[in-house]
Amino acid sequence: MSSFFLTTAIDYVNSRPHLGTAYEKITADVIARYHRLKGDGTWFLMGNDEHSQNVFKRAQEQGKDPLAYCDEMEQIFREVWRGLDISFDDFIRTTDRRRHFPAVQRMAQACLDNGDIYEGTYEGFYCVGCEEFKPEKDLVDGLCPIHKTKPEWIKEKNWFFRLSKYQQPLLKFYEEHPSFIEPEVRRNEILRFVEGGLEDLSMSRAGQSWGIPLPFDPTSVVYVWFDALINYAAAAGYGWDDAQFARRWPANLHIVGKDITRFHCVIWPAMLMSAGLPLPGQVFGHGWVFFKGERMSKTMGNIVDPLDAAKRFGPDPLRLYLTKEVVYGADGDFTWERFEEKYNADLANNLGNLVNRVAAMSERYRQGRLLARGGESLATIAADATSAYRKAMDGLALHEGVAAAYRLISAANEYIAETQPWSLAKDPAKAEQLSGVLYDASEAVRIAAVLLLPVMPSSAAEILRRLGDTTAPGNLRFDTAAAWRASGERGILNAGALWPRLEDKGAITVSETTPTAASGSPAPAPAAPAAPSAPVAPPAPDAPAIDSDKITIDDFMKVQLKVAKILEASNVPKSKKLVQLKVDVGEAEPRTILAGIAESYQPEQLVGRTIVVVANLKPAKLMGIESNGMVLAASPEGGGALLLNAEPAVPGTRVR
Ligand code: MSP
Q1: What are the tens digits of pLDDT across the range 245-258?
Q2: How large is the average pLDDT for residues 199-225?
Q3: What CATH number does the domain containing 589 carry?
Q4: Which of 176, 408, 420, 539 has its CB surrounded by the most CB atoms within 10 Å?
Q5: 3 state SS of 369
Q6: 21: CA distance to ligand 1 center in Å?
Q7: Measured in angstroms, how far is the CA atom of residue 88 from the centroid of ligand 1?
């Protein structure tokens, strides 16, 4: 068993977490859970960065003692992380006097003893938002390019860290450890930056009380970044438990945002070199998540509260969205519309429907008991998906890992459509084949659920439970759990929809919310009625105010239009117009629908087509046959009926 120590950035606590900061924790949690699934002794560290001037100011604004304010914020952060199912093993705060203070003081002393800290005077612009001195050339119209605020001019006596001395050692280290900085775009940025030469770093602030005093100058506190970076070593035991530190350090992976890779890839390794400590294995600089293409910010009023998003459908759909839709390492975007679309497509219509179908058919045709078998084509697809998943996850291509799991899900869906268990069920001679098909489908879903465990911990565990896997998810091990099971028996539970389609829940859009005050928890967003996503043309100037033959969106939403695939087609005896169709509408069983299209199509031309049907029409009997729905077709002047093509949508997809 190998060990794996990973960390996230520690957050400033001047406001509650937003979707961007949550993105980092969710993806790090996926990585941590994946390592646990592989059986690695995993230690996942998170925490809060409290010695920032902005934190101090926020506490003052609220008339609170800064430490008491940070205590409150810790509870808020923990509540958000709990709400997103983040499974950190340790949480460190930079105001922790038992662990963090001694670590920071020890490291400052070690750097001093090594001749890397000296006294000088600093004069320059300081951006409090970045907590960083800004060279004048980096300002845009005199403002910080990130925070769009005017930096303060500061002149004070400071202690400096001899960063310039580490230019060559750092470049050598990057060369010898090519995977130290990932992804490649970040590595190139850092290489270019360090090659350009490094300036010494001011590592103290004079005359401030909020911070950790320097052991060799109690009138100064440690600069917030020098302080914060040490959290990783502090949590491992540095400065207070040498034996534990020796066991745990170095960290294998630091997950941080692309805006702070420089601190982690340049300053932090130089500090560790100076203190004579081993360097971490890798720094991964993920991209940013935007809201409708904009940076989330209080002034823009477009901050998405991750708990609002998690309250929408539970944490798992949000975790899936952020992991699947954003290429890990690149920037991504969140909108409520896209989130809801993906919920319907990936969960309600795809995975959720697959689980329901398998469970419903297993119950109906085999009383919920399935016997294992080899698996043929699906077993091969599962093995391919599993190895692609593993490769992707080991390389931190989380989005590709999820895509591999979804390839298996799609293959299982196609397999059901092709093998048509409902037809097999009618022929007693095909009983064994039917058993095999149901088992194979269930096994493919089980393996997909194992692959999705790190991403959707509760839902994947629930799928496994329904598929009769009695092992506690925490005890599952990737190698055995993700392998095809060719023997044994399983009991399948048919327990209803895991993710009801949105229209069934009667709510479509969550209003954009601004975060509530740090001390209060956010009110759940009100559910608004469905709104059309296509732009609505304004009425013509001479149009009457109310058009009596127009219907409202509510009227329209009553009609359930769905994508369907034609499985069988035959002529209806004694009818010139009617064709009898068997269509897959994404339900456990296909439906029979009669359509007046016989004059336009031969039955054999119809099989395999993907069309649109009205799915919630009351059943009607025509020529003695019950029709359950209506096929949509265009009827041009002069007769005929042209079916609408709904390729490549999945059966069951709602059409609007
Ligand atoms: N306190 C420092 C980190 C110190 S680590 C020793 C800090 N805090 S932060 O609260 O501003 O940001 C915390 C993390 O969230 C950073 O990794 C940052 O890049 C990330 N993100 C902040 N906004 C983000 C998005 N909109 N999208 C993705 N990540 C974002 O920096």
Answers
A1: 999 999 999 999 99
A2: 95
A3: 2.40.50.140
A4: 408
A5: strand
A6: 6
A7: 17
